[in-house]
Protein backbone atom coordinates (compact mmCIF):
# COMPACT_ATOMS: atom_id res chain seq x y z
CA UNK A 1 0.00 0.00 0.00
CA UNK A 2 2.77 2.40 0.98
CA UNK A 3 4.40 2.08 -2.43
CA UNK A 4 1.17 3.04 -4.23
CA UNK A 5 0.35 5.94 -1.93
CA UNK A 6 3.92 7.18 -2.34
CA UNK A 7 3.45 7.37 -6.13
CA UNK A 8 0.40 9.59 -5.72
CA UNK A 9 2.13 11.69 -3.07
CA UNK A 10 5.15 12.21 -5.28
CA UNK A 11 3.03 13.26 -8.26
CA UNK A 12 0.82 15.63 -6.23
CA UNK A 13 3.83 17.15 -4.42
CA UNK A 14 5.62 17.96 -7.69
CA UNK A 15 3.23 17.87 -10.68
CA UNK A 16 5.71 19.84 -12.78
CA UNK A 17 8.38 17.14 -12.52
CA UNK A 18 5.81 14.46 -13.32
CA UNK A 19 4.45 16.36 -16.32
CA UNK A 20 7.93 17.02 -17.65
CA UNK A 21 8.85 13.32 -17.45
CA UNK A 22 5.61 12.34 -19.19
CA UNK A 23 6.34 14.83 -21.94
CA UNK A 24 9.79 13.34 -22.44
CA UNK A 25 8.03 10.01 -23.00
CA UNK A 26 6.22 11.64 -25.91
CA UNK A 27 2.82 12.44 -24.35
CA UNK A 28 0.98 15.64 -25.11
CA UNK A 29 -0.31 17.44 -22.01
CA UNK A 30 -3.18 19.87 -21.50
CA UNK A 31 -3.41 21.75 -18.21
CA UNK A 32 -6.62 22.56 -16.31
CA UNK A 33 -7.51 24.26 -13.04
CA UNK A 34 -10.87 23.09 -11.84
CA UNK A 35 -13.07 20.01 -11.39
CA UNK A 36 -15.60 21.43 -13.86
CA UNK A 37 -13.13 20.64 -16.65
CA UNK A 38 -14.57 17.88 -18.85
CA UNK A 39 -11.36 15.90 -18.53
CA UNK A 40 -12.86 12.87 -20.25
CA UNK A 41 -12.95 14.70 -23.61
CA UNK A 42 -9.30 15.74 -23.32
CA UNK A 43 -8.36 12.22 -22.26
CA UNK A 44 -10.34 10.71 -25.15
CA UNK A 45 -8.25 12.75 -27.60
CA UNK A 46 -5.18 10.85 -26.39
CA UNK A 47 -3.79 13.89 -24.60
CA UNK A 48 -2.95 13.80 -20.90
CA UNK A 49 -5.07 16.20 -18.77
CA UNK A 50 -3.08 17.57 -15.83
CA UNK A 51 -4.38 19.81 -13.09
CA UNK A 52 -2.38 22.83 -11.93
CA UNK A 53 -2.56 23.83 -8.26
CA UNK A 54 -0.58 27.08 -8.34
CA UNK A 55 2.80 27.46 -6.74
CA UNK A 56 4.24 28.26 -3.34
CA UNK A 57 7.29 29.73 -5.04
CA UNK A 58 7.72 33.35 -6.06
CA UNK A 59 4.64 34.51 -7.97
CA UNK A 60 5.76 38.08 -8.61
CA UNK A 61 5.79 37.52 -12.39
CA UNK A 62 1.97 37.53 -12.19
CA UNK A 63 1.77 40.86 -10.34
CA UNK A 64 2.05 42.87 -13.54
CA UNK A 65 -1.25 41.39 -14.70
CA UNK A 66 -3.28 40.79 -11.55
CA UNK A 67 -4.77 42.99 -8.85
CA UNK A 68 -4.11 42.27 -5.17
CA UNK A 69 -7.52 40.64 -4.74
CA UNK A 70 -6.78 37.60 -6.91
CA UNK A 71 -6.38 34.30 -5.07
CA UNK A 72 -3.04 32.53 -4.76
CA UNK A 73 -4.18 29.73 -7.10
CA UNK A 74 -4.73 32.10 -10.01
CA UNK A 75 -1.63 34.13 -9.15
CA UNK A 76 0.55 31.02 -8.83
CA UNK A 77 -0.72 29.42 -12.04
CA UNK A 78 -0.14 32.57 -14.05
CA UNK A 79 3.34 32.99 -12.56
CA UNK A 80 4.14 29.42 -13.58
CA UNK A 81 2.87 30.07 -17.09
CA UNK A 82 4.81 33.32 -17.51
CA UNK A 83 8.05 32.02 -16.02
CA UNK A 84 8.35 29.17 -18.50
CA UNK A 85 7.94 26.55 -15.80
CA UNK A 86 5.12 25.02 -17.85
CA UNK A 87 7.07 24.78 -21.07
CA UNK A 88 6.18 21.07 -21.28
CA UNK A 89 2.42 21.61 -21.72
CA UNK A 90 0.66 21.71 -25.08
CA UNK A 91 -2.23 23.87 -24.01
CA UNK A 92 -4.80 24.65 -21.36
CA UNK A 93 -8.56 24.47 -20.89
CA UNK A 94 -10.43 27.06 -18.82
CA UNK A 95 -13.92 26.25 -17.56
CA UNK A 96 -15.66 29.52 -16.69
CA UNK A 97 -16.26 29.29 -12.98
CA UNK A 98 -15.25 32.30 -10.87
CA UNK A 99 -14.35 35.78 -12.17
CA UNK A 100 -10.65 35.31 -11.48
CA UNK A 101 -10.40 32.09 -13.51
CA UNK A 102 -12.21 33.82 -16.40
CA UNK A 103 -9.75 36.71 -16.33
CA UNK A 104 -6.83 34.29 -15.95
CA UNK A 105 -8.03 32.73 -19.18
CA UNK A 106 -7.87 36.10 -20.99
CA UNK A 107 -4.45 36.99 -19.61
CA UNK A 108 -3.17 33.51 -20.44
CA UNK A 109 -4.45 33.72 -24.02
CA UNK A 110 -2.89 37.13 -24.60
CA UNK A 111 0.45 36.57 -22.88
CA UNK A 112 1.45 32.96 -23.39
CA UNK A 113 1.95 30.68 -26.36
CA UNK A 114 1.20 27.18 -25.20
CA UNK A 115 -0.58 25.97 -28.30
CA UNK A 116 -4.06 24.71 -27.60
CA UNK A 117 -6.41 27.05 -25.75
CA UNK A 118 -10.09 26.68 -24.99
CA UNK A 119 -12.68 28.33 -22.79
CA UNK A 120 -15.49 26.10 -21.60
CA UNK A 121 -18.28 28.56 -20.88
CA UNK A 122 -20.34 26.64 -18.34
CA UNK A 123 -23.95 27.53 -17.61
CA UNK A 124 -24.21 29.45 -14.34
CA UNK A 125 -27.74 28.47 -13.41
CA UNK A 126 -27.91 24.70 -13.57
CA UNK A 127 -31.68 24.76 -13.06
CA UNK A 128 -32.77 26.67 -16.17
CA UNK A 129 -34.60 24.74 -18.89
CA UNK A 130 -31.99 25.37 -21.57
CA UNK A 131 -28.89 24.79 -19.39
CA UNK A 132 -28.50 21.12 -20.28
CA UNK A 133 -28.79 21.43 -24.06
CA UNK A 134 -26.61 24.56 -23.94
CA UNK A 135 -23.94 22.67 -22.05
CA UNK A 136 -24.09 19.75 -24.47
CA UNK A 137 -23.36 22.25 -27.26
CA UNK A 138 -20.41 23.64 -25.27
CA UNK A 139 -18.97 20.16 -24.78
CA UNK A 140 -19.48 19.30 -28.46
CA UNK A 141 -17.59 22.47 -29.35
CA UNK A 142 -14.70 21.54 -27.03
CA UNK A 143 -14.61 18.15 -28.71
CA UNK A 144 -14.38 19.67 -32.20
CA UNK A 145 -11.87 22.33 -31.02
CA UNK A 146 -9.65 19.59 -29.64
CA UNK A 147 -9.99 17.58 -32.86
CA UNK A 148 -8.98 20.59 -34.93
CA UNK A 149 -6.29 21.87 -32.57
CA UNK A 150 -4.62 18.50 -32.08
CA UNK A 151 -5.31 17.16 -35.60
CA UNK A 152 -7.06 14.11 -34.25
CA UNK A 153 -10.49 12.53 -34.16
CA UNK A 154 -12.43 11.78 -30.97
CA UNK A 155 -14.98 9.03 -31.58
CA UNK A 156 -17.95 8.23 -29.37
CA UNK A 157 -16.21 4.99 -28.45
CA UNK A 158 -13.09 6.95 -27.40
CA UNK A 159 -15.31 9.06 -25.16
CA UNK A 160 -17.07 6.01 -23.68
CA UNK A 161 -13.68 4.40 -22.95
CA UNK A 162 -12.58 7.57 -21.15
CA UNK A 163 -15.81 7.72 -19.21
CA UNK A 164 -15.18 4.12 -18.07
CA UNK A 165 -11.65 5.01 -16.93
CA UNK A 166 -12.85 8.05 -15.00
CA UNK A 167 -15.78 6.19 -13.49
CA UNK A 168 -13.36 3.56 -12.26
CA UNK A 169 -11.00 6.19 -10.76
CA UNK A 170 -13.90 7.99 -9.09
CA UNK A 171 -15.39 4.77 -7.71
CA UNK A 172 -12.04 3.66 -6.27
CA UNK A 173 -11.41 7.05 -4.67
CA UNK A 174 -14.89 7.03 -3.17
CA UNK A 175 -14.37 3.51 -1.82
CA UNK A 176 -10.94 4.32 -0.35
CA UNK A 177 -12.27 7.49 1.30
CA UNK A 178 -15.07 5.38 2.77
CA UNK A 179 -12.57 2.85 4.18
CA UNK A 180 -10.66 5.61 5.99
CA UNK A 181 -13.85 7.25 7.19
CA UNK A 182 -15.13 3.97 8.65
CA UNK A 183 -11.78 3.15 10.29
CA UNK A 184 -11.32 0.20 7.93
CA UNK A 185 -8.00 1.33 6.45
CA UNK A 186 -4.43 1.75 7.62
CA UNK A 187 -4.31 4.89 5.44
CA UNK A 188 -4.51 8.37 6.91
CA UNK A 189 -6.75 11.22 5.69
CA UNK A 190 -3.68 12.99 4.29
CA UNK A 191 -2.99 9.86 2.19
CA UNK A 192 -6.52 9.98 0.74
CA UNK A 193 -6.08 13.65 -0.11
CA UNK A 194 -2.85 12.76 -1.94
CA UNK A 195 -4.69 9.98 -3.81
CA UNK A 196 -7.35 12.42 -5.02
CA UNK A 197 -4.88 15.14 -5.99
CA UNK A 198 -2.50 12.59 -7.50
CA UNK A 199 -5.36 11.23 -9.63
CA UNK A 200 -5.54 14.61 -11.33
CA UNK A 201 -1.82 14.40 -12.19
CA UNK A 202 -0.94 10.76 -12.86
CA UNK A 203 -1.44 9.15 -16.22
CA UNK A 204 -5.06 8.06 -15.90
CA UNK A 205 -4.77 4.39 -16.84
CA UNK A 206 -1.93 4.08 -14.29
CA UNK A 207 -4.05 5.89 -11.68
CA UNK A 208 -6.98 3.57 -12.44
CA UNK A 209 -4.83 0.44 -12.07
CA UNK A 210 -3.05 1.59 -8.90
CA UNK A 211 -6.27 2.68 -7.18
CA UNK A 212 -7.93 -0.65 -7.97
CA UNK A 213 -4.88 -2.43 -6.55
CA UNK A 214 -5.12 -0.29 -3.43
CA UNK A 215 -8.81 -1.10 -2.97
CA UNK A 216 -8.05 -4.81 -3.33
CA UNK A 217 -5.26 -4.59 -0.75
CA UNK A 218 -7.78 -3.52 1.89
CA UNK A 219 -8.88 -6.36 4.11
CA UNK A 220 -11.15 -4.45 6.49
CA UNK A 221 -8.47 -3.97 9.13
CA UNK A 222 -7.94 -0.35 10.05
CA UNK A 223 -6.36 2.01 12.50
CA UNK A 224 -7.53 2.27 16.08
CA UNK A 225 -8.41 5.94 16.20
CA UNK A 226 -11.28 5.75 18.64
CA UNK A 227 -10.27 8.89 20.55
CA UNK A 228 -10.09 11.09 17.50
CA UNK A 229 -12.87 13.55 16.74
CA UNK A 230 -14.48 13.24 13.30
CA UNK A 231 -14.19 16.41 11.24
CA UNK A 232 -15.03 17.48 7.70
CA UNK A 233 -13.19 20.04 5.54
CA UNK A 234 -15.19 22.43 3.36
CA UNK A 235 -13.86 24.86 0.78
CA UNK A 236 -12.14 25.08 -2.59
CA UNK A 237 -8.70 23.68 -3.11
CA UNK A 238 -6.69 22.21 -0.24
CA UNK A 239 -3.15 21.65 -1.47
CA UNK A 240 -1.71 21.61 2.05
CA UNK A 241 -0.89 18.07 3.20
CA UNK A 242 0.19 19.58 6.55
CA UNK A 243 -3.42 20.42 7.43
CA UNK A 244 -4.23 16.72 7.79
CA UNK A 245 -1.18 16.08 9.96
CA UNK A 246 -1.83 19.11 12.18
CA UNK A 247 -5.43 18.07 12.65
CA UNK A 248 -4.31 14.58 13.60
CA UNK A 249 -1.83 16.08 16.10
CA UNK A 250 -4.75 18.09 17.48
CA UNK A 251 -6.85 14.95 17.91
CA UNK A 252 -9.05 15.09 14.81
CA UNK A 253 -9.51 12.79 11.82
CA UNK A 254 -10.76 14.20 8.51
CA UNK A 255 -13.52 11.72 7.61
CA UNK A 256 -15.08 13.59 4.70
CA UNK A 257 -14.79 16.81 2.75
CA UNK A 258 -16.52 19.12 0.35
CA UNK A 259 -13.40 20.28 -1.50
CA UNK A 260 -12.61 20.58 -5.17
CA UNK A 261 -9.42 18.70 -4.34
CA UNK A 262 -11.58 16.09 -2.60
CA UNK A 263 -15.08 14.68 -2.88
CA UNK A 264 -16.24 17.18 -5.52
CA UNK A 265 -13.70 15.58 -7.86
CA UNK A 266 -14.92 12.02 -7.53
CA UNK A 267 -18.59 12.11 -6.60
CA UNK A 268 -21.04 11.07 -9.29
CA UNK A 269 -20.71 8.34 -11.94
CA UNK A 270 -21.48 8.89 -15.62
CA UNK A 271 -23.63 6.40 -17.62
CA UNK A 272 -21.31 4.41 -19.87
CA UNK A 273 -23.81 3.66 -22.66
CA UNK A 274 -25.68 6.04 -24.92
CA UNK A 275 -24.68 9.50 -26.08
CA UNK A 276 -21.38 10.24 -24.30
CA UNK A 277 -21.64 14.03 -24.67
CA UNK A 278 -25.15 14.08 -23.16
CA UNK A 279 -23.97 11.77 -20.39
CA UNK A 280 -20.94 13.96 -19.64
CA UNK A 281 -23.15 17.03 -19.49
CA UNK A 282 -25.51 15.20 -17.18
CA UNK A 283 -22.89 14.76 -14.46
CA UNK A 284 -22.52 18.53 -14.10
CA UNK A 285 -26.14 18.80 -13.15
CA UNK A 286 -26.04 15.94 -10.66
CA UNK A 287 -22.69 16.40 -8.88
CA UNK A 288 -22.07 18.49 -5.76
CA UNK A 289 -22.18 22.07 -6.87
CA UNK A 290 -19.29 24.49 -6.38
CA UNK A 291 -20.34 27.95 -5.10
CA UNK A 292 -19.42 29.47 -8.47
CA UNK A 293 -22.51 27.72 -9.87
CA UNK A 294 -26.14 27.81 -8.86
CA UNK A 295 -28.41 24.82 -8.56
CA UNK A 296 -30.78 25.98 -5.82
CA UNK A 297 -30.62 28.38 -2.90
CA UNK A 298 -30.21 25.62 -0.38
CA UNK A 299 -28.52 22.80 -2.32
CA UNK A 300 -25.00 23.27 -0.93
CA UNK A 301 -26.10 23.60 2.67
CA UNK A 302 -28.42 20.62 2.35
CA UNK A 303 -25.65 18.42 0.94
CA UNK A 304 -23.27 19.63 3.61
CA UNK A 305 -25.62 18.75 6.46
CA UNK A 306 -26.49 15.39 4.84
CA UNK A 307 -22.80 14.51 4.50
CA UNK A 308 -22.07 15.63 8.08
CA UNK A 309 -24.86 13.44 9.45
CA UNK A 310 -23.99 10.47 7.19
CA UNK A 311 -20.31 10.54 8.18
CA UNK A 312 -21.06 11.24 11.87
CA UNK A 313 -19.07 14.45 11.65
CA UNK A 314 -18.52 16.25 14.97
CA UNK A 315 -17.16 19.48 13.54
CA UNK A 316 -16.72 21.25 10.21
CA UNK A 317 -13.64 23.26 9.26
CA UNK A 318 -14.09 25.82 6.49
CA UNK A 319 -10.85 26.29 4.56
CA UNK A 320 -11.35 29.67 2.95
CA UNK A 321 -8.81 30.47 0.25
CA UNK A 322 -8.11 34.17 0.66
CA UNK A 323 -9.88 36.29 -2.00
CA UNK A 324 -12.04 33.38 -3.14
CA UNK A 325 -15.29 35.33 -3.45
CA UNK A 326 -17.72 32.49 -4.31
CA UNK A 327 -16.78 30.53 -1.18
CA UNK A 328 -16.67 33.66 0.99
CA UNK A 329 -20.19 34.66 -0.10
CA UNK A 330 -21.49 31.18 0.67
CA UNK A 331 -19.89 30.94 4.11
CA UNK A 332 -22.41 32.92 6.24
CA UNK A 333 -25.40 30.91 5.09
CA UNK A 334 -23.56 27.60 5.32
CA UNK A 335 -22.46 28.42 8.88
CA UNK A 336 -25.97 29.48 9.81
CA UNK A 337 -27.34 26.19 8.50
CA UNK A 338 -24.73 24.18 10.39
CA UNK A 339 -25.50 26.19 13.57
CA UNK A 340 -29.19 25.42 13.19
CA UNK A 341 -28.30 21.70 13.11
CA UNK A 342 -25.95 22.12 16.13
CA UNK A 343 -22.93 21.16 14.03
CA UNK A 344 -19.94 23.19 15.32
CA UNK A 345 -17.70 24.83 12.74
CA UNK A 346 -14.62 27.00 12.48
CA UNK A 347 -13.29 29.18 9.69
CA UNK A 348 -9.66 29.16 8.62
CA UNK A 349 -8.35 31.49 5.96
CA UNK A 350 -5.57 29.96 3.89
CA UNK A 351 -3.31 31.07 1.05
CA UNK A 352 -0.54 29.37 -0.88
CA UNK A 353 1.22 29.18 2.50
CA UNK A 354 -0.45 28.11 5.74
CA UNK A 355 -0.58 30.45 8.78
CA UNK A 356 2.27 29.89 11.30
CA UNK A 357 2.09 26.37 12.68
CA UNK A 358 1.88 27.45 16.33
CA UNK A 359 -1.22 29.60 15.77
CA UNK A 360 -2.79 26.97 13.58
CA UNK A 361 -2.30 24.30 16.24
CA UNK A 362 -3.81 26.61 18.87
CA UNK A 363 -6.93 27.00 16.73
CA UNK A 364 -7.23 23.36 15.78
CA UNK A 365 -6.61 22.10 19.33
CA UNK A 366 -9.15 24.55 20.75
CA UNK A 367 -11.76 23.63 18.16
CA UNK A 368 -11.17 19.90 18.63
CA UNK A 369 -11.41 20.23 22.40
CA UNK A 370 -14.66 22.17 22.18
CA UNK A 371 -16.53 19.82 19.84
CA UNK B 1 -6.08 19.69 45.86
CA UNK B 2 -3.25 22.03 44.89
CA UNK B 3 -2.71 22.52 41.17
CA UNK B 4 -0.63 24.87 39.03
CA UNK B 5 -0.93 26.54 35.66
CA UNK B 6 1.98 27.81 33.58
CA UNK B 7 1.18 30.23 30.75
CA UNK B 8 4.12 30.84 28.43
CA UNK B 9 3.23 33.88 26.36
CA UNK B 10 5.26 35.61 23.67
CA UNK B 11 6.39 38.38 26.04
CA UNK B 12 5.77 37.12 29.58
CA UNK B 13 5.64 33.77 31.35
CA UNK B 14 3.00 33.48 34.05
CA UNK B 15 2.42 30.93 36.81
CA UNK B 16 -0.51 30.45 39.16
CA UNK B 17 -1.07 28.05 42.04
CA UNK B 18 -4.63 27.24 43.04
CA UNK B 19 -5.91 25.22 46.00
CA UNK B 20 -9.54 24.04 45.81
CA UNK B 21 -10.53 27.03 43.72
CA UNK B 22 -8.60 29.62 45.77
CA UNK B 23 -5.72 31.37 44.05
CA UNK B 24 -2.76 30.98 46.41
CA UNK B 25 -0.37 33.06 44.34
CA UNK B 26 0.71 34.20 40.89
CA UNK B 27 3.97 35.28 39.27
CA UNK B 28 4.95 37.03 36.01
CA UNK B 29 8.43 37.15 34.44
CA UNK B 30 9.70 37.91 30.92
CA UNK B 31 9.76 34.82 28.74
CA UNK B 32 13.10 35.47 27.08
CA UNK B 33 14.64 33.07 24.59
CA UNK B 34 14.15 29.69 26.21
CA UNK B 35 10.62 28.49 26.99
CA UNK B 36 11.66 25.69 29.34
CA UNK B 37 14.00 27.95 31.32
CA UNK B 38 11.23 30.55 31.67
CA UNK B 39 8.73 27.90 32.76
CA UNK B 40 11.06 26.45 35.41
CA UNK B 41 12.01 29.92 36.65
CA UNK B 42 8.50 31.38 36.99
CA UNK B 43 7.17 28.19 38.58
CA UNK B 44 10.16 27.75 40.90
CA UNK B 45 10.04 31.36 42.08
CA UNK B 46 6.30 31.18 42.74
CA UNK B 47 6.62 27.95 44.75
CA UNK B 48 9.49 29.52 46.74
CA UNK B 49 7.38 32.61 47.49
CA UNK B 50 4.51 30.43 48.63
CA UNK B 51 6.84 28.18 50.63
CA UNK B 52 5.51 25.13 48.81
CA UNK B 53 7.59 22.10 47.89
CA UNK B 54 7.11 20.94 44.27
CA UNK B 55 5.53 17.67 45.39
CA UNK B 56 2.72 19.57 47.13
CA UNK B 57 1.35 20.39 43.68
CA UNK B 58 -0.63 17.45 42.35
CA UNK B 59 -0.98 18.47 38.72
CA UNK B 60 0.38 21.09 36.33
CA UNK B 61 -1.21 22.29 33.08
CA UNK B 62 0.82 24.34 30.61
CA UNK B 63 -0.71 26.81 28.19
CA UNK B 64 0.26 29.66 25.86
CA UNK B 65 2.34 29.46 22.71
CA UNK B 66 5.11 27.68 24.64
CA UNK B 67 2.78 25.08 26.16
CA UNK B 68 4.47 22.12 24.53
CA UNK B 69 7.91 23.18 25.82
CA UNK B 70 7.13 22.65 29.52
CA UNK B 71 8.38 19.12 30.24
CA UNK B 72 7.13 18.97 33.83
CA UNK B 73 3.50 19.73 32.87
CA UNK B 74 0.98 16.87 33.00
CA UNK B 75 -0.96 18.27 30.08
CA UNK B 76 -0.84 21.13 27.57
CA UNK B 77 -4.04 23.01 26.74
CA UNK B 78 -4.52 25.97 24.45
CA UNK B 79 -4.65 29.47 25.89
CA UNK B 80 -8.14 29.92 24.46
CA UNK B 81 -9.51 27.08 26.60
CA UNK B 82 -7.54 28.29 29.64
CA UNK B 83 -8.53 31.95 29.33
CA UNK B 84 -12.18 30.94 29.12
CA UNK B 85 -11.81 28.72 32.21
CA UNK B 86 -9.87 31.43 34.06
CA UNK B 87 -12.42 34.13 33.27
CA UNK B 88 -15.24 31.83 34.34
CA UNK B 89 -13.39 31.11 37.58
CA UNK B 90 -12.87 34.79 38.37
CA UNK B 91 -16.34 35.89 37.16
CA UNK B 92 -18.74 32.98 36.57
CA UNK B 93 -21.39 35.16 34.90
CA UNK B 94 -19.04 36.08 32.00
CA UNK B 95 -20.24 35.04 28.50
CA UNK B 96 -17.62 36.74 26.31
CA UNK B 97 -13.90 36.96 26.94
CA UNK B 98 -11.68 39.39 25.04
CA UNK B 99 -8.05 38.44 25.46
CA UNK B 100 -5.41 40.77 24.09
CA UNK B 101 -1.93 39.40 24.54
CA UNK B 102 1.50 40.30 23.27
CA UNK B 103 1.25 38.88 19.79
CA UNK B 104 -2.38 38.05 19.20
CA UNK B 105 -5.89 38.90 20.20
CA UNK B 106 -8.82 36.58 20.66
CA UNK B 107 -12.50 36.71 21.41
CA UNK B 108 -14.26 33.76 23.01
CA UNK B 109 -17.91 33.03 23.59
CA UNK B 110 -18.18 31.10 26.86
CA UNK B 111 -21.03 28.99 28.21
CA UNK B 112 -22.31 28.83 31.78
CA UNK B 113 -19.67 26.22 32.66
CA UNK B 114 -16.73 28.22 31.32
CA UNK B 115 -16.37 26.05 28.20
CA UNK B 116 -15.59 27.72 24.88
CA UNK B 117 -18.68 27.90 22.67
CA UNK B 118 -17.02 29.73 19.76
CA UNK B 119 -13.80 31.67 19.26
CA UNK B 120 -11.98 33.87 16.82
CA UNK B 121 -8.34 34.82 16.72
CA UNK B 122 -6.26 37.26 14.69
CA UNK B 123 -3.45 35.58 12.84
CA UNK B 124 -2.18 37.88 10.18
CA UNK B 125 -0.71 40.97 11.79
CA UNK B 126 0.20 42.75 15.00
CA UNK B 127 -2.56 45.36 14.81
CA UNK B 128 -4.87 44.94 17.80
CA UNK B 129 -2.23 43.35 20.01
CA UNK B 130 0.01 44.30 22.91
CA UNK B 131 2.95 44.56 20.54
CA UNK B 132 1.14 47.28 18.59
CA UNK B 133 0.80 49.30 21.81
CA UNK B 134 4.48 48.74 22.66
CA UNK B 135 5.57 50.10 19.28
CA UNK B 136 3.33 53.15 19.71
CA UNK B 137 4.49 53.80 23.28
CA UNK B 138 8.08 53.83 22.06
CA UNK B 139 7.26 56.26 19.25
CA UNK B 140 5.51 58.56 21.75
CA UNK B 141 8.19 58.18 24.45
CA UNK B 142 5.60 57.21 27.03
CA UNK B 143 5.95 54.45 29.59
CA UNK B 144 3.51 51.70 28.60
CA UNK B 145 2.13 51.64 32.17
CA UNK B 146 1.06 55.31 31.79
CA UNK B 147 -0.50 54.76 28.38
CA UNK B 148 -3.96 53.93 29.64
CA UNK B 149 -4.31 56.80 32.10
CA UNK B 150 -2.96 59.39 29.67
CA UNK B 151 -5.56 58.49 27.05
CA UNK B 152 -8.38 58.96 29.57
CA UNK B 153 -7.43 62.65 29.71
CA UNK B 154 -7.76 63.14 25.93
CA UNK B 155 -10.26 65.85 24.97
CA UNK B 156 -10.46 64.76 21.31
CA UNK B 157 -8.98 61.38 20.28
CA UNK B 158 -6.97 61.55 17.06
CA UNK B 159 -7.99 59.40 14.11
CA UNK B 160 -5.57 56.58 13.27
CA UNK B 161 -6.80 55.03 10.06
CA UNK B 162 -4.00 52.59 9.21
CA UNK B 163 -4.54 49.08 10.40
CA UNK B 164 -0.93 48.05 9.75
CA UNK B 165 1.35 48.53 12.77
CA UNK B 166 4.21 49.95 10.73
CA UNK B 167 2.00 52.37 8.77
CA UNK B 168 0.13 53.33 11.94
CA UNK B 169 3.47 54.19 13.52
CA UNK B 170 4.30 56.56 10.66
CA UNK B 171 0.80 58.02 10.98
CA UNK B 172 1.49 58.63 14.67
CA UNK B 173 4.80 60.30 13.82
CA UNK B 174 2.95 62.60 11.38
CA UNK B 175 0.49 63.50 14.14
CA UNK B 176 3.38 64.25 16.53
CA UNK B 177 5.03 66.52 13.97
CA UNK B 178 1.71 68.28 13.45
CA UNK B 179 1.64 69.10 17.16
CA UNK B 180 -1.31 66.88 18.08
CA UNK B 181 -1.46 66.55 21.90
CA UNK B 182 0.08 63.30 23.04
CA UNK B 183 -2.97 62.13 24.99
CA UNK B 184 -5.17 62.56 21.89
CA UNK B 185 -2.79 60.41 19.87
CA UNK B 186 -2.75 57.73 22.57
CA UNK B 187 -6.55 57.75 22.75
CA UNK B 188 -6.65 57.41 18.96
CA UNK B 189 -4.29 54.42 19.16
CA UNK B 190 -6.52 52.75 21.74
CA UNK B 191 -9.52 53.38 19.57
CA UNK B 192 -7.74 51.77 16.62
CA UNK B 193 -6.99 48.66 18.71
CA UNK B 194 -10.59 48.57 19.94
CA UNK B 195 -11.98 48.91 16.40
CA UNK B 196 -9.85 46.01 15.25
CA UNK B 197 -10.76 43.73 18.12
CA UNK B 198 -14.46 44.69 17.98
CA UNK B 199 -14.63 43.88 14.25
CA UNK B 200 -13.03 40.51 14.91
CA UNK B 201 -15.41 39.76 17.81
CA UNK B 202 -18.42 40.33 15.53
CA UNK B 203 -17.68 36.96 13.95
CA UNK B 204 -18.79 35.23 17.15
CA UNK B 205 -21.94 36.04 19.07
CA UNK B 206 -20.37 38.34 21.67
CA UNK B 207 -23.02 38.44 24.40
CA UNK B 208 -22.55 40.43 27.61
CA UNK B 209 -21.29 40.24 30.32
CA UNK B 210 -17.89 40.78 28.70
CA UNK B 211 -14.56 40.38 30.45
CA UNK B 212 -11.19 41.42 29.17
CA UNK B 213 -8.10 39.37 30.03
CA UNK B 214 -4.45 39.30 29.04
CA UNK B 215 -1.78 41.90 29.70
CA UNK B 216 -3.55 44.66 27.73
CA UNK B 217 -6.52 44.46 30.14
CA UNK B 218 -4.35 46.52 32.51
CA UNK B 219 -4.68 49.41 30.05
CA UNK B 220 -7.85 51.31 30.97
CA UNK B 221 -7.67 53.30 27.73
CA UNK B 222 -8.20 50.16 25.64
CA UNK B 223 -10.89 48.91 28.03
CA UNK B 224 -12.87 52.18 27.77
CA UNK B 225 -12.47 52.27 23.98
CA UNK B 226 -13.80 48.72 23.77
CA UNK B 227 -16.74 49.60 26.04
CA UNK B 228 -17.69 52.39 23.62
CA UNK B 229 -17.54 49.97 20.69
CA UNK B 230 -19.48 47.17 22.35
CA UNK B 231 -21.93 49.58 24.01
CA UNK B 232 -21.65 47.57 27.19
CA UNK B 233 -19.44 47.60 30.28
CA UNK B 234 -16.33 45.44 30.15
CA UNK B 235 -15.05 43.92 33.35
CA UNK B 236 -11.43 43.45 34.16
CA UNK B 237 -9.83 41.78 37.10
CA UNK B 238 -6.65 42.56 38.98
CA UNK B 239 -5.48 39.08 37.97
CA UNK B 240 -6.34 39.61 34.28
CA UNK B 241 -2.73 39.22 33.12
CA UNK B 242 -2.40 35.84 34.83
CA UNK B 243 -5.92 34.71 33.89
CA UNK B 244 -4.64 32.08 31.45
CA UNK B 245 -2.38 30.55 34.12
CA UNK B 246 -5.25 30.55 36.62
CA UNK B 247 -7.49 28.85 34.05
CA UNK B 248 -4.79 26.24 33.44
CA UNK B 249 -4.48 25.60 37.18
CA UNK B 250 -8.26 25.30 37.53
CA UNK B 251 -8.45 22.88 34.59
CA UNK B 252 -5.54 20.87 36.06
CA UNK B 253 -7.79 19.75 38.91
CA UNK B 254 -10.16 18.14 36.40
CA UNK B 255 -7.74 16.13 34.24
Question: SSE layout and pairings?
Answer:
The complex is a heterodimer of chains A (371) and B (255).
Chain A: H1 2-13, H2 15-24, E1 29-32, H3 39-44, E2 48-51, H4 72-83, E3 91-95, H5 99-111, E4 116-120, H6 131-149, H7 156-181, H8 189-199, H9 204-217, E5 229-235, H10 241-249, E6 252-258, H11 263-266, H12 276-286, H13 299-310, E7 315-321, H14 325-340, E8 345-350, H15 357-370
Parallel strand pairs in A: 1-2, 3-4, 5-6, 5-7, 7-8
Helix pairs in contact in A: 1-2, 1-8, 4-5, 6-12, 7-8, 7-9, 8-10, 13-14
Chain B: E1 2-8, E2 12-19, E3 22-30, H1 35-50, E4 59-63, E5 75-76, H2 79-90, E6 96-100, E7 105-110, E8 116-121, H3 130-140, H4 144-152, H5 165-177, H6 182-201, E9 210-213, H7 220-230, E10 234-235, H8 243-252
Parallel strand pairs in B: 1-4, 4-5, 6-9, 9-10
Antiparallel strand pairs in B: 1-2, 2-3, 6-7, 7-8
Helix pairs in contact in B: 2-8, 3-5, 3-6, 4-6, 4-7, 6-7
Task: Write a concise keyword list for the protein shown above.
heterodimer, A: 371 residues, alpha/beta, Rossmann fold, four-stranded parallel β-sheet, two-stranded parallel ribbon, 15 helices, 51% helix, B: 255 residues, Nucleotidyltransferase, domain 5, 2 domains, five-stranded mixed β-sheet
